[in-house]
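Following up on my earlier thread - several people asked me to post the actual chain instead of describing it. Fair enough. Here it is, all 384 residues.
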Amino acid sequence: MRLQAGRYFSAAVLTASLFACSGGGGSSVTPAQPVATATSNSAGAASPSTPSSATDFQRVATALSLSQRSDGAIPYTATNVNPYFANIAATGAARTGADLTSVRAWIAWYVARSRDPNPWGIAGAITDYTILPNAALQSTGSADSVDAYAATFLTLVATAYQFGDAGLRSYVQGLRSDVERIASAIDAVTDVDGLTWALPTYHTKYVMDASEVYAGLNDLATLRSSAYGDIAGSLAASQRAATLRAAIVATFWSDARGTFAVGMDANGVQTLPDPGAWPDAMSQLAPILHGVISPSSAVATGIYGRFNAAFPNWTSLSKPDQYPWVSVAFVALQMNDALRASAYRSAVDAAFTPQFAYPWYCAESGWYLRVVNGIIAPQTVAAD
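Reply from S.P.:
Thanks for posting it. Predicted structure:
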């Protein structure tokens, strides 16, 4: 989960208003089989599923498919391809079955570009790309991270294998050497404590990146066992994920504060969260979002409660950040808070449909597909 603040992406790079970038979508835009028309909120009360949820799903899936390039690249803006954001978009499409053909096209693009030279000399690492005026792509020679790019790709491929059709599953089975090569990029930025540096040239460890890497390693374990029949390799990835989880809790969590540190530099100096800062609040939700801590745990309940106390109007898009941050609504579903998630969906419907224009972007679409799917079929949230 990336933040558009601080060392992360600046709003200045988003100079063009555009449709949400593609993570696939459009050819089969039917969310999971609806279940009961009532879902439960965090207080245990029933709230009706919004009648227009299926329509919202179709709208964002269509917007996604319209913006994917013919070469499979998923634009972040009109002039940039960010593989991290695109991985999240494609994962949402794969998880909900929005458009598996487009998902495959993006995976193929990522695999091919991960063979391009990169400034760190790390096999499997990938950079961002500039879209030139003639529509050609040119590497920027940089990326926001190595660890999270590789980890979200592993999550994407595992999702594609688990929820894809026979053709996509067969395609993933043929990618083993590429998957292992891209996974090895995480090794290249892993410190002795099991935590990862964002970049080999930027020695800071972030709780957000670590959470995504934890999920990616678990997904690598799934891929190795289910797609590649590598039980020993699967066990090794699972054990590494467990070691990483322990390191995240031991390094970043403080019982006294009741918060995770945002990050830690090479000297062991931690950046502690500012309770009123939106980017810092997002870092607190990352361990819930990516499974480091259980949504039913006291730690998760405390984090989520403090988040809602600090930002009570996030469901109406009233917050100190211009981006939609759909992933927050997915955390709400994880926390069994369908009431807030549904209120947020309604706010998105009013603010962004049908164009899904700036400050909406592709990763938001990926999460939104999963949120709408989760509102219609709550069991899909638990499955994640």
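The two ends are 16 Å apart (CA to CA). That should answer part of your original question.
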